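>> Question from a student workshop board

For tomorrow's exercise we were told to take the sequence and the ligand below, predict the bound structure, and bring the output to class. My setup keeps failing. Could a helper post the expected result so I can at least see what it should look like? The ligand is EPS.
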Amino acid sequence: MFRFETAGESHGQCLVATLTGLPAHVPVSLDALNHELWRRQQGFGRGGRMKIETDTVELVSGVRHGITIGSPIAMLIQNRDWKNWTEVLPVEDYEGSADKKKPVTRPRPGHADLAGGIKYDFPDARYILERASARETTARVAVGALCKQFLKQFGVEVLSHVIAVGPVRLERSATWDEVAALARKEEVLLGCVDPETEARMKEAVDVAYRTGDTIGAIFEVVAHNVPTGLGSHITWDSRLDGRLAQAIVSMQAVKGVEVGYAEEGALSYGSKVQDTIHYNKEERAFTRGANRAGGLEGGMTNGQDILVRGFLKPISTLRRPLESVDLTTREPKEAAYERSDVCVAPAAGVIGEAMVAIVLAQAFLEKFGGDSLQETCRNFQGYREQVRNY
Ligand code: EPS
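>> Workshop helper replied:
Here is what the output should look like for this input. Compare the format with yours to find the bug.
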């Protein structure tokens, strides 16, 4: 029953998102929603488009008097750039429209241009890149923001930080408090919790700017205060780590995902990798020696923070374009360039947060159900009691 969908093209009129399955009575703050969209637009290395847009949501259904009413929620986000594209990408064809088209006939290596052009049988990549563009993530962030507001009712929070930009890497783990402090900042540079490392990350982005290049990054999403037992070990598709991995890799430019310290673990020994189990008798609670599993064991949450990392390849639109082929002449030609981001690191983290929040909200409702928030809360409290008495 819980599902979401997005529609819209990068230079079309607007982006659209629908979310079905949130219970009634969830308080919704438009300010909090728009703040998430603002966060997605920040960071050193964003392109010219971010100067045109100030993304805000119009909530057109499913929310009344500041609460969800149980019906599908529909949201619109206008593209301010649309006014520059009405003749290029009209809904209805008109006489002379061919002269106004901006065909993209030199596909960019790494982008959807060539594979999409072949698959959908378009002689240029315009219609493909319009949808493949990461502009679509604005709609995902809007959906994620609603899911965050739902999860907040149960004390669950989802945030992110950047752990690498190109060759510059944060050589330690970050605490939840550091990540939370980062999210409160009014100015966003590269989203790293360590200012000295962040300054070196900025230098790496500067090099990419100077040389007409782009640069990759790794972000980490942290979900805090998640109850034990979301997801399940019983079937391949109920394993929450698998579902989170799909959500992260579905993001534009993400080529890899890591749950906890996956790579480190794969290169190590079991005695060094597993999070040892302890028991605090006074607090009647299990504790762990570390959190290398990233909060997931057997495809279930184990009560520790969820740690999911996304590996971003450098954006495929380069100011100094790579070798390609002209689709009309089949002759070698440099790839197309209009404008682009050089580094999208902190923005990608915000999108990753949205995807994780969506997956967690769905898993939460699978476990606790409820048509009203009150009903979900009752079920949640009952389970909490059961866990306390375990
Ligand atoms: C984006 C908007 C796009 C790109 C970027 C993300 O706007 P435009 O194409 O008008 O510059 O800046 O999309 C891509 C990285 C891409 O490869 O298409 C946004 O809103 O995030």
